[in-house]
Fold this sequence. Notes:
Blueprint: H1 4-12, H2 19-44, E1 54-58, H3 64-70, E2 75-80, H4 83-95, E3 101-104, E4 118-124, H5 133-145, E5 147-159, E6 170-172, E7 177-182, E8 184-190, H6 194-203, E9 206-214, E10 235-243
Parallel strand pairs: 1-2, 1-4, 2-3, 4-5
Antiparallel strand pairs: 5-10, 6-7, 7-8, 9-10
The chain binds S-adenosylmethionine.
Amino acid sequence: MSLQPYYEESYQSESGRSTVDLLQEVTTYSKGLFNYTVESKNRFLPNLDWSSLKILEMGAGRGGLGLLLARLGAQVTLVDFSPTALAQAEKIFNTEGLEVTCIQGDVTHPDINLPQQYDIIVDSHLLHCLTEDPDRSSYYRLISDHLTPQGIFVAETMVHRKKLFIPDGFMFDERNVLWQMFGKWTPIRRILDSLDLEKELNDAGFNIIYFYYYGQYGFVPHRSFMDLPAEILPAAVRMVVQNKEL
Length: 246
Ligand SMILES: C[S@@+](CC[C@H](N)C(=O)[O-])C[C@H]1O[C@@H](n2cnc3c(N)ncnc32)[C@H](O)[C@@H]1O
């Protein structure tokens, strides 16, 4: 089932906020993953200049990570299935006089049309929103088809740890899917064990060149999980993958 209406409604509910306020929030939020993306670029693509880089942000929302990368001179494209999020992102980029290409579409649909290949594809917290197996493999295929030969996919995602607190109104099943009750049970997150995530990436044809498990980090899957100790929240993984050489 598509969660597009759920995200769309949540972005619409914040339509009254000023662009300056949103700019402040998204840049603060994205700073950690921005630094990690810069480190990954410097390590794995050291010979490319920022001004020559084509970067695609998947599930970009308001595009905070893309904005910080555009400030370095990269040409940034944002993809999201929420038109409201992309409209807000465009306003944020315009405030700084930065260009951005926005593509509205579902990253799991075979008919999504991305016009070119990218040196870096970034994913700030989209992967764990894809709960179904065919959707995740379609997403991996989309990434693989749109990376340049040396291109890198840089992502941060939540992963399972043995103890996970599940508040009322949520359930967690044997496929590691977190469900929320909104009138009916709805799958909202897939919180894989990090070993299963590594296997999934390998099976999808990627070469994992960096994979780090942040056990001390407590990832909040939804605001109902706020203020819980890190050891009963999901942990985080940061990773960099490339297409395997043929
Ligand atoms: C958890 S939010 C992360 C937003 C942003 N990247 C950030 O880090 O703040 C997930 C984003 O992915 C988008 N999204 C979820 N599933 C998607 C899909 N199948 N295709 C395209 N966008 C999707 C949502 O609209 C939302 O903006």
